[in-house]
């Protein structure tokens, strides 16, 4: 699953995004690309759950 996160602009943001995703799926594989503001996620969580947890973390996302 690929997500676009406009607010993710640096490595610190990428760590926060990864932490938020792994808070709902500790086994999720998260590949962040702050330069492209993109995240690839291999997870068992639903898209709705991911979008919600990222919104709560301050990084609203959209599905690519």
Characteristics:
single chain; 64 residues; alpha+beta; Alpha-Beta Plaits; 4-stranded antiparallel sheet; 2 helices
Helices and strands, with pairings:
Blueprint: E1 2-4, H1 11-24, E2 29-33, E3 38-42, H2 47-56, E4 62-63
Antiparallel strand pairs: 1-3, 1-4, 2-3
Helix pairs in contact: 1-2
Structure description:
There is one protein chain. 38% of the residues lie in helices and 23% in strands. It is α+β, with helices and mostly antiparallel strands. It has one domain: Alpha-Beta Plaits, CATH 3.30.70. Strand 2 and strand 3 form a beta hairpin. Helix 1 (11-24) packs across helix 2 (47-56). The longest helix is centred in the N-terminal third of the chain and has 14 residues, at 11-24. The chain is globular, with a radius of gyration of 10 Å. The termini are close together. The model has no long low-confidence stretch (mean pLDDT 97).
What's the shape? globular
Structural class based on helices, strands and sheet pairing: alpha+beta
Q: Strand tally, please?
A: 4
Question: How many helical elements?
Answer: 2
Describe the strand arrangement of the main beta sheet, using strand numbers: 2-3-1-4
Main CATH class: Alpha Beta
How would you concisely characterize the structure shown here?
This protein has 64 residues and is of the alpha+beta class. The chain has two helices and four strands; from the N terminus they run E-H-E-E-H-E. The protein has one domain (2-63): Alpha-Beta Plaits (2-Layer Sandwich).
């Amino acid at each position: 699953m690929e997500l676009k996160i406009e607010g993710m602009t640096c490595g610190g943001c990428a760590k926060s995004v990864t932490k938020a995703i792994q808070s709902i799926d500790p086994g999720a594989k998260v590949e962040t690309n702050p330069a492209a503001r993109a995240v690839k996620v291999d997870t068992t969580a639903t898209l709705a759950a991911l979008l919600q947890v990222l919104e709560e973390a301050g990084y609203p996302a959209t599905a690519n």
